[in-house]
Amino acid sequence: MRFGPPVALAIALLLPLSISAQSLGDFGSSASSFSVSISPQYPMPYGQATLSFLSSTIDLTNASMSVMVAGKNIYKGNIQPMTVTLGKAGAVTQVEVSITSGGTQYSQSIAIQPQDVALVAEPISSAPPLYPGKPSVPLEGNVRVVAIANMRNASGKALDPHTLSYTWIVDKAQITNASGIGKEAIMVASPLQYRSREVSVSVMSQDGSLVGGSTLSLSALDPSVRIYENDPLLGVRFDHALFGSYSIKSAEATLFAAPFSFGTSRGSPTLEWFLNGVHAQTGGIITLRPSGNGQGSASLSLVASSGDYMRASTNLSLSFGTTKGFNLFGL
Fold it and tell me: Which residue(s) pair with 231 in the sheet?
């Protein structure tokens, strides 16, 4: 899973809607003399938050700063971005910043409360049954994105995810009809080929005191199809896809077709087998039974298709038998 770049959040004199992960004390004109931005916008538990400082009234290049975290002085010197290590979900990290300029001291208190929110992509695409891997994002398909919210208050009590409010944003546009209380998932169209799609969620408690969020980037994968040996004892050998050539060493061999990254919103892709360029059969499994007492070769092709444009193929060169004059039948 890949996340977007962190977004700075200015927190000086913000409205209550934006103070879930961090809040300020009331220092009057002192608080308005400089602003503090926190990156990332939604700090994660046991992660780090970077504090940056801006001011339109104080010459910060000629000022000094001291920073205290949980009552301990961690820095004193020139003004520069500061990194603070956070605790578990819901635990409040209290940060006090004092800036001195021209003999005057300006102070702000910041409470950073990380929340644990993760996004999980569930592509609606093809993958064989019992396949240990995860389906890929399909072209011309859909992806279900689920928010897993472990929101906790300062005492560590977990909030019921079904009572939280979810705000979904896709490519910087808020999806109003998919947002609301208890709306933990959203269905998103796959991005175009060679492009990506950014999906973000902001999760808030009903009283607005706690907020968390997360972002992921979706990239579609070209469809493909693979051939695996279906062993009578071991089952489908997903650990080894067949490429190039395959030797039939027994009375018969059963092969399994596995289409990957085909959108399945409108049904499974069609699988067609071709032997020496001639259509042999349709379906996910083919059984090859050599006959006679000679040796020979043949070409096997597999084509997977869905709709008018989604298509993938793979080929195998088959060899069988011990002497010449061998044929292939029983397809």
Answer: 235
The answer to whether the CB of 11 falls within 8 A of the CB of 35 is yes
CA pair distance 331, 301, nearest whole angstrom: 13
User: d(Cα 328, Cα 321) in Å, to the nearest integer?
Assistant: 10
Mean pLDDT per block of 10 residues along the chain (331 residues) reads: 34 29 42 86 95 93 94 94 95 95 92 96 89 86 96 95 97 96 97 94 95 96 94 88 90 92 90 94 91 79 90 92 49 42
Correct CATH for 116-219 of 2.60.120.10, 3.30.70.1450, 2.60.40.10, 3.40.50.300? 2.60.40.10
User: Who's near 190: CB < 8 A, 6+ residues apart?
Assistant: 123, 137, 138, 139, 140, 141, 142, 143, 197, 218, 220, 263
Give the domain 224-329 fold: Immunoglobulin-like (2.60.40)
Q: Which residues contact 281 (CB under 8 A, 6 or more apart)?
A: 272, 273, 331
The answer to whether 51 and 62 are in contact (CB under 8 A) is no
Please tell me the CATH superfamily of domain 9-112, with its number.
Answer: Immunoglobulins (2.60.40.10)
Q: What is the DSSP string of 258-275?
A: EEES-B-TT-PPEEEEEE
Tokens of 29: 């004109």
The answer, as to whether pTM is greater than 0.90, is no
Q: Across the chain, how many H-helices and E-strands are there?
A: 1, 27
- Using alpha carbons, list the distances in angstroms from residue 271 to 183, 232, 262, 275, 282: 37, 22, 12, 14, 6
Distance CA(121)–CA(145), nearest Å, equals 5
Instruction: Compute the distance between CA of residue 131 and CA of residue 145 in angstroms, rounded to an integer.
Output: 21
Domains of the chain, residue spans:
9-112, 116-219, 224-329
What is the distance between the terminal CA atoms of the chain, rounded to a whole angstrom? Answer: 42
